[in-house]
Amino acid sequence: MALVVQKYGGSSVATAGHIKTVARKIVDRVARGDRLAVVVSAMGDTTDDLISLAEQVSSSPSPREMDMLLSTGEQTSAALLAMALHDMEVSALSLNAFQLGIETTGRFRDARIVDLDLSRLRHRLEDVQVVVITGFQGISPDGDVTTLGRGGSDTSAIAVAAKLGVPCEIYSDVAGIYACDPRVVPEAKKLDYVVYDEMLEMAALGAKVLHSRGVEIAKKYEVDLYCGSTFSDEEGTRIVNTLPEWLEQPVVTGIAVDMDQMKVTLEGLPDGVDLLTRLFGCLAADGVNVDMISTVSAGGRTSITFSVVSGHICQVRDSVRESLEGIDGWSLSDDSTVAKVSAVGVGMKTSSGVAARFFSALDGAEVSVLGTTTSEIKISVLVPRDQAGDAAKALVAEFDRREEQA
Amino acid sequence: MALVVQKYGGSSVATAGHIKTVARKIVDRVARGDRLAVVVSAMGDTTDDLISLAEQVSSSPSPREMDMLLSTGEQTSAALLAMALHDMEVSALSLNAFQLGIETTGRFRDARIVDLDLSRLRHRLEDVQVVVITGFQGISPDGDVTTLGRGGSDTSAIAVAAKLGVPCEIYSDVAGIYACDPRVVPEAKKLDYVVYDEMLEMAALGAKVLHSRGVEIAKKYEVDLYCGSTFSDEEGTRIVNTLPEWLEQPVVTGIAVDMDQMKVTLEGLPDGVDLLTRLFGCLAADGVNVDMISTVSAGGRTSITFSVVSGHICQVRDSVRESLEGIDGWSLSDDSTVAKVSAVGVGMKTSSGVAARFFSALDGAEVSVLGTTTSEIKISVLVPRDQAGDAAKALVAEFDRREEQA
């Protein structure tokens, strides 16, 4: 008998009918001799409906009460799934964050899991075949209900699996992780394996199948993760520490596309790190989230290109002007219609010529490169937003040919 | 500064708009310098909606999971009310059964409160003006969520008030307790005061404003209870241990009508208590709920009339035949179209002639009396169901004239 953690997302438990489908999937697994801890999200639109109710009674709902309110969503789906399992003659019971002893920090709406009291879970698993756990929620040191922020149920599931030292299976309406978001590159293939570090870099990949906080926990505790579809038996994607030995590590595993970027370029600045400190300090203080930064220095003058995620261009301009007050001779240009396209792969560490293939592919697709940054396992470029799709397609095609070229 | 417990029922928090109305009522009270522990029910039809969801996933939902499911209803309304109070600049927070430490028995769907951990409530009331408490729910010795059965939120509120030693105000869409159900006798007056024992006898009175389990707790711990309307400032009804000294105790406080009775008469039985034991033992074993019992014995033969609540006449006949097997010479007759009409008043203990006035009023209204039982503070008669309204009207009129006659 093996113990396994499974997680079903909101679209997998959206209706009573969906919940019965999930129950049948669990029943089949139990019939194979496994015991399960199943983490569930709230049903479909429940969370949005509750937020809308909150906004009807308050112009700025208290975060503490919002968490108290939202946590009812998972309790509802957990209880219903346990009932559906009973109806199929599988012994099951639901546990909420109080009952499971999920301790978190006290930051409402975005708490972090601090500890889990596994003795309670193990105790209950002695009596029943399936324990259904409310995802997304925990209890603060003051005994208040907290929620874990976006993707929180993934985090709950992976944390439970990490603490139990067992595998974790994440089910949703997507069949796994793809080499590129299928909405951008429909021909992108589903990946059999992804390494934790790649998954972290590819957070934007694969229609948000998996949240990066959960992956960080999986990496830290080496939890075997699996992402698959609730509604089909198609094989999904395994996220692991290292690939199986028989599998050669590809150079590039996936292509990530982030459409929501804005490019800012400053030219003619005097050299000096203090200026950068002032500049990025000022932007951070104004709540501007800076992503890619490239600097080029020549002849005592520095040019800086950086990209900004979801900021307002007027605010960026104001922040920059404020930070550079008293300095002359510089100019600012901006472009709010750019996208970031990245190739990610731990194989880059040991392969040469990846950058050449990367830029050659973009060149072949006539994509303009507006800025570049690299890490050990990633190359990112800023491109005009309307060329992002072509860029991704070209990169998917280039790096999918790896086997022929190896 | 006084501490007060208030309870708002499901119809009082049915929508976001209703919740804001309740919040304004609380804000006014806080402005007068009071601190409040407010117990809430689930919003309007929430409980029914959740039960319907449960029935969609299971043909006979597990009671444990049903309680887990239903308890989300009160948590939702409690969080929303706390948010609405914040929005009106009153400090408030919601607490569920885990947070408040409401210990109950382990009987799902119908648990009894065993204890409350008031230290947590008092601690929170040091920081905020209003603590909003989820009604209807508790935690079993095993740490499972339980619910308290019909009227459970009244019980929660009264138990909190009892433990704190403070008054309890029950708000609903009814303005108080009436001398008779206004649907039966529209001219029945609202009562200013009712004594606990009367309230217990009058459980069927006043459109189910107050559940008898709560009243039992109120009586035991002498909690000052008040029943009033959420939506008007009209003065409601106080339920107390003894009336204020300046108020003369009326002979009859209220007239209760129970339309759902069935009358069974046995004649020609041999005398003997053992026979009654067999008869009522057999009915109880078959789940028949016997209410009024009258026996008349003469010439060595006994006649028995009893009334049955919500049973099936065939089952009653079978039970009776089974229990009287081997005995000859008796006959059974039954009437399934009867009602019970009762006059209740602790003043009966010290007044004479109440029975005479009672029967004279019925006689004046040409009501047939099919059976009678009395207690220290109640006279009940069985009457043909179609005469129950006339009987109630006549009794309300008769005993409302007490002041002239005193």
Structure in words:
- 2 copies of one chain form a homodimer.
- Chain A is α/β, with parallel strands linked by helices.
- Chain A folds into 2 domains: 3-240, Carbamate kinase (3-Layer(aba) Sandwich), CATH 3.40.1160.10; 254-405, VC0802-like, CATH 3.30.2130.
- Chain A has 13 helices and 18 strands.
- The first copy, chain A, has an 8-stranded mixed beta sheet, with helices on both faces. A 6-stranded antiparallel beta sheet of chain A has the order 14-15-13-16-18-17.
- In chain A, helix 6 runs parallel beside helix 8.
- The first copy, chain A, is globular.
- The first copy, chain A, starts with a strand and ends with a helix.
- The A-B interface holds A 16-17, 19-20, 23, 50, 53-54, 56-62, 64-66, 68-69, 71-72, 75-76, 78-84, 86-87, 93-94, 96, 98-99, 120, 143-145 and B 16-17, 19-20, 23, 50, 53-54, 56-62, 64-66, 68-69, 71-72, 75-76, 78-84, 86-87, 93-94, 96, 98-99, 120, 143-145.
- Chains A, B: Pfam families: AA_kinase, ACT_9.
- Chains A, B: InterPro entries: AceGlu_kinase-like_sf, ACT-like_dom_sf, ACT_Aspartokinase, ACT_dom, AKii-LysC-BS, Asp/Glu/Uridylate_kinase, Asp_kin_monofn, Asp_kinase.
- Chains A, B: Its EC number is 2.7.2.4.
- Chains A, B: It comes from Dethiosulfovibrio marinus.
- Chains A, B: It is an enzyme of class 2 (transferase).
Oligomer: homodimer
The largest pleated sheet of chain A is described as:
8 strands, mixed
Individual helix count of chain A: 13
CATH topology of the largest domain in chain A: Carbamate kinase
Q: State the CATH class of the largest domain in chain A.
A: Alpha Beta
Can you count the beta strands of chain A?
18
CATH superfamily of the largest domain in chain A: Acetylglutamate kinase-like
Radius of gyration of chain A, rounded? 24 Å
Mean pLDDT of chain A: 90
